[in-house]
Design goal:
Blueprint lengths: L20 E6 L5 E6 L2 E5 L5 E6 L4 H9 L1 E6 L5 H7 L9 H4 L4 E3 L6 E3 L4 E13 L2 E13 L9 E4 L2 E4 L2 E2 L1
Antiparallel strand pairs: 1-2, 1-5, 3-4, 4-9, 5-8, 6-7, 8-9, 10-11, 11-12
Length: 172
Amino acid sequence: MEYEIIPPAEAYRLLNGGGIVWVCTRSREGRYDLTPVAWNCPLDYEPSSRVIVVLDPGHAAAVNLRASGEFALALPDLTQKELVIKTGSVSGRDADKYARFSIEASRADRVDALVPAGVAGVLECRLLEAREIGSVVVVAGEVIAARAVKDSWKRILHHAGGETFYASGEEV
């Protein structure tokens, strides 16, 4: 086998499958927000599923979920690539992304968050811990409710870096 050298700053791409989630939150002032995050993974499954999400501590999502103690993870459908890019280009502190991008949404069942219509799945979480490590905050949450479309794994959008997105191995 022949290997190529990977710069240390890009080595994380070998571990992260790039599955994108929208972290959906509500601020103390009542503004709903969503931000796309590719750094997420399962943490545990007993007694219930637990998840990890890595955020910038100054971003609205991190501030909101720390204040509220809850959040939802919405899994963008492969058809929502452009909306993922748009929602990642604007700060939730500066704009109501739902209004700005005309995002149709519904309330989550168990947490106070808005979930974009058409997502492949939703995990509603209560915050277990948020710990700053270096320049990031590592968020651990416990899933208290979840739902997904049939064969959702085929529909989930992934980000491989830069302009490259894929779903189930197919570039989109």
